[in-house]
Design goal:
The chain is of the alpha+beta class and 492 residues long. The protein is 62% helix and 11% strand.
Length: 492
Amino acid sequence: MRKAIPLLLVLLAACAVGPSYERPEVAPADSGQHVAIRTPDSVQAKLDTVVQVRDSLLKLKAEQPVDLKSGASADVAWLNLLQDTVLVQLVRRAVVNNRDIQLAMARVREAHALAGAAKGPLYPQLYGVGAASTNQVVFGTFGTQKYDALIVQANLQWEIDFLGGIRRSVQAANFDAVAVQEGENAVRLTLVADVATAYVELRELDDDLAISLSTLESRRETLRIARRRYEQGLISELDVRQFEAEVAGPAAAVAFYTRAVSQKENQLRVLLGEGPGEIPRGLPLVDVVRGLNVPDSLPSTLVSQRPDVKRADAAAAASNARIGVAIANRLPKFLVTGSYGTQATGTIWLFRSSTETYLLQGGISLPLFTGGRLVNEQRAAVARADQFRSNYEQTVLVALSEVSDALVGVRTSRDQAAALDLQVGALERAQALATMRYQAGLSSYLDLLDAQRALYTAQLAQAQTRRLRLVSAVQLYKALGGSWTQETQAQN
């Protein structure tokens, strides 16, 4: 019987009330599954994919500390796809200096500290007490008695976690820390995407400014030709005025794009955590686009690496653990309290055997009536767990939709860029022919104006499409949580 009691205590300590948060096993890595993410045909198709993604989620190690910069190198390594070393350096500066990153990292440290504090109640709580007092009491016919008392003692308080309520609370705190960590990862992911997007937009504005300057110079040259022909009596004043009007368009555009470039540089400097100033430039957009290689289809399970999906999953696990906490609050609590010390009338008598004091007691606390508070707290915990579960499923649906949209953007922007490249080439030749025909007096100024306008518009559209291709790649990177390769996913 005596041997059975310790065994029973061990078995009780191993259990924990409330439902356990079980995650399905991870799908085999060599299964060969490679389902292209596309826009689902129905809501049911999306729900089926939610289950597939959930099956592929890696098990969270909630009780282990998380590296605050675990994904930073992977974020920067991905940018090598764009083959622009300047952009990589800008991202490194942003990850180090950006204030939002620093704020998020401080929140992570706070969450891990709170998770550590949640483990405290698992262990006995010891407090040291020291007191000195002057007392006067009345003992009936014995009269008034006065005495001094010095007390030095240690107090013990311990709730033995037989039913696992405290352990469930620790689990919840650990999962909260994981959720906050994934929130920091989401901030970093958004920052990298924002820096890359702003840089690409800056390079497009550079191209727009260069195109406008080149067009302005071309139209000024045409205006000089028109004025010379007018002086020779070959054309009317109307032709000259039309060409003068055409010069004003790109001149205004030059001023607009000059201002836009400065504003975009300042926006980028804020992301870098720095004051206003210039931004260094790397490769031209045309060179970056030429080296871009993005797949047309991806396995849908890649969205499991998104920080918001992991954060929603950790939040659901934390809420599930708190159901156990609420259940444990309705059950008996096993308490051990005690004290040990010394009490004497003077310091010379302290710590002698004759002044030793101690108390040790064990007890059970059972809530008998709380006006329905505890049962409703349990119901609320179950309802919150249902909310977080639904939030997780919704997060996965949104993730799938964003990846599908990003893939569509990558494919269509590539086709659009190819078409515009052909159009710009044809219009450049058309403008050259129109200029030669106008100088030879074989066509009117309207033909030349139409050719110049069409080429200018197409060149601006070409630059915008190049920017769109790169931004679509950045959006796909963000939608997938940082990468579209299984190798990078393993590094994360």
